């Protein structure tokens, strides 16, 4: 049997620059990158290095200035805005540091609203939502609460349920534990680990080493390119070996 990993995203010669006033700032240029199915890919790098910008280009949330992003056989960089929005809705789940749940709806209704937009049947969605709420450890009583009535960790876990309810090909996360305390953070990271163990492909941007340890592949963005990458192997627990490997890698990268 071949161990060759299947590519989901192939990015070629990506360039992204922003023009502010009369100054052009190039964030990355000539960047080539493959993202593989089933990987938990972590993007690290110093503040302002372009981690989020890269994630936005890969997911179609933003367009690169030039270059190509191909998902399976679909070149998303040449889709119209409308088609790109449909593509994203179908293929991407997003989790951010800020949790954008709708305040006037229960956690369950927030999730069901997201699945209704995808055209899934209500019965199937309710069944799957219940499974996911179990997975993220949110009991039935809490699912009926409004976002203002739950903890930050519970709200973020519900946000993750909403992000994966439509079975996205890739779950994208940008500092998903950035606003959480240590216990809530661990509970959220445990959800990412469970999803990854169930086969979910994940791309996550973080500054945090503890978070990065949950991934199996760490990319380091620096000087407008993927400066280095580290194969951490699959997370089982925060073993000293993986931690040492990540520490050495980050030192090499100039972290
Ligand atoms: N819409 C925009 N207009 C102009 N400049 C932008 C825009 N978005 C990002 N930038 C610039 O691009 C650079 C990279 O930003 P980005 O948010 O990708 O960095 P990052 O590595 O994720 O940083 P951090 O870790 O601090 O969140 C920054 O210098 C930022 O100011």
From TrEMBL:
This is ABC transport system ATP-binding protein. The keyword ATP-binding applies. GO terms for molecular function: ATP binding. Keywords: ATP-binding, Nucleotide-binding, Transport. It comes from Blautia caecimuris. Belongs to the ABC transporter superfamily. InterPro entries: AAA+_ATPase, ABC_transporter-like_ATP-bd, ABC_transporter-like_CS, MacB-like_ATP-bd, P-loop_NTPase. Coiled coil: none annotated. The keyword ATP-binding applies. SMART domains: AAA.
